[in-house]
Every structure is written in structure tokens, then in C-alpha cells.
Amino acid sequence: AQTVTQSQPEMSVQEAETVTLSCTYDTSESDYYLFWYKQPPSRQMILVIRQEAYKQQNATENRFSVNFQKAAKSFSLKISDSQLGDAAMYFCAYRWPVGKLIFGQGTELSVKP
Amino acid sequence: NAGVTQTPKFQVLKTGQSMTLQCAQDMNHNSMYWYRQDPGMGLRLIYYSASEGTTDKGEVPNGYNVSRLNKREFSLRLESAAPSQTSVYFCASSEDVRGLGYGYTFGSGTRLTVV
Lengths: 113, 115
Known about the structure:
Shape of chain B: globular
Order of helices and strands of chain A: EEEEEEEEEEEE
Structural class of chain A: mainly beta
Largest sheet of chain A: 6 strands, mixed
Oligomer: heterodimer
Number of helices of chain B: 0
Number of helices of chain A: 0
Helix content of chain A: under 10%
Largest interface: A-B, 23 and 25 residues
Radius of gyration of chain A: 13 Å
Strand content of chain B: over 45%
Distance between the termini of chain B: 35 Å
Shape of chain A: globular
Structural class of chain B: mainly beta
Distance between the termini of chain A: 41 Å
Helix content of chain B: under 10%
């Protein structure tokens, strides 16, 4: 069975600095998708970034980038130049084509001014 | 605005009461899902519907029933609410086409408290 693990329940970063959130997953599939979702206090689930497993190049979206290590089954999220608005719960998630989205436990990120 | 609409946003129930959470999407997506979110456990799948007329159990289906009323609507029913069902509930939909990246669109969630 596929599983997703986020081992950092809480993280903290100073404004303008860089932070990395960790995620590992377990699967026997070779074709799948990985996602990071942001959940601010409003509760809305916001897609931050996605990675297709068959693409070796790491995905980037402005200040957000991932380090995708397929062999190690690792998918970390790096946030550069952290802003107060980045404070939120972050969820790592996995999906194989046409399957269900499986979430990690979440990492609560706080940003200190 | 296009998206997933959930109602209600907040609800308090007494133990044993029943209620239905409503969800509708206007993106013509085939698949729809119900998740619950609990602290330290992420989002867990309750039920899903891969297409109109089909429903299947997810990871935590006990105590819930669902109805895929049509392609747009997917409701979640609690027949006899229990305090263990206190949670935040999310509805989501997805377009299962490779070129679209298989992402989900989520509703804004329902905070349910059972006392």
C-alpha cells in the first residue's frame, strides 16, 4: 500500500530565510504524481507545486521548489525568501494515475518576523 | 467562480442526530471525493466516486454513507453522529486526464462538531 510520511510536525523559519519541509513516500509504482498543498488558517487547500515522477527535473514555482529523489522516495519542499503569508499547514501528497490522493500528516510552518 | 462548493461551513450536532453534507462542482469532473481532516493525521479518504453512478469506500468509511446524485453533486451523510466524527470535512473533485496533472480541486471545508 502507498504511504506518505511527513516526520516534522512543526517547523519555524525567520522571515526572508529558507526552509525545507521533508516528505517520504512508499510505492511500488513507477508512474505517479507528487504534490505539496498549503492550508492557511482559512482552511482552503491550495496547490503549491506538483512533480511528475517520470520527469527528472525538479519542479519550481517562484519561491517554491522541490528536491525529488525518486530512488530514495523523497520529495522535499524548499521555500526561499520566506514571507509571513507562507505560515500555514503544508501537506505532501501522492497519487498514481487515476488513483486517490494520499496525504501525509502535515507540517505546521510558522514564520517569525 | 468555478470550483467546488460545500455546505454548510460549520455545524454542531448532538450525538445520534443525522445530517447530510452537500458538495457540488461545476468543472465537469468525473471523480469526486470526501475526506476528513484530524490533527496529526492529515486528510483521510472516506468515500469516493470515480464516475456518476459509482461509489467506493475509502480508508475510513464506517459511520458514513454517500450518494452521487449526478455528475455535479456528491453528498455525505452521517446517519447517527458520534463524537468521534468531530472533524473538518473536505469535498474534492478531479479531472483524470494525464495532461492536466491529476490535481484535485477542494471545497472550503465543513467544520463539524458532535457533542
